[in-house]
Hints:
The chain is mainly beta. It contains two helices and 16 strands. Strands 2, 3, 4, 5, 6, 7, 8, 9, 10, 11, 12, 13, 14 and 15 form a 14-stranded antiparallel β-sheet that branches. The chain has a two-stranded parallel sheet with strand order 1-16. A hairpin with a 6-residue loop joins strand 5 (about 80-95) and strand 6.
Amino acid sequence: MNIKARIPLVTLLLTLGSTPAVVTADESQAELAKKLNNPIANLISVPMQLNYDQEMGTGNQGDRYLLNIQPVIPFSIGEDWNLITRTILSVISQDDVDPGTDQSGIGDVTESLFFSPKALTENGWTWGAGPVFLLPTASDDLLGGGKWGIGPTAVALKQEKGWTYGALANHVWSVAGDDDRADISSTFLQPFLAYTTPRHTTYTINTESTYNWEIEEWSVPINLMATQLFKIGKQPMSLQLGARYWADSPESGPEGWGVRLTYTLVFPK
Length: 269
């Protein structure tokens, strides 16, 4: 695999490592590992997910480094409900995706709001639902869609005996933006299955599939990841390493294998 160094992205990743996340001081490692597997847990976290993909563009010669900064912030809205905000800000560096050109900068922002009951259902499920927004923040036309978007999002999961399983989904329609850019009608599906060992190691398989209704094509990466929760001194944190295979993608999309590295910090009060 021809993986080139990206000093600005590595520097940014290390700098963002100082961003805190808050949990209660007496929270056990096991409970923390469980919460980190739940995308709508009552936990502030800031995962920083670095992805590498290759064989992109019309000539299959392009590659891309994609850093997703994904703060998750819950708010209590009464005795029975939480509002969980999930933001995805993309920092992108790519070569030859558009043949003969390079781009580096910020991509579009996706903002999801989940209204979630604090109590589990009778069958032990956790769920949340709300709106999702697409913000055209890209610093280059080739790094974003140039459209404002909105739609519904929902997630449901269950955790038992070390297992976490469920799915997250959303759909975004473009509602405004650059008239010269293509309209957006996109469905995102993320079924996931994870198992956490007594040593707080989590093994996860998921897909992050997207169906583009405008061009009627799928993007289907299958992700295999291992995550270790640990402490340095009193500081808990997690590190994830994974690989993914592109089972399907548009003609100019990624192909073959990619790599993922995710770093998350949590800070007791």
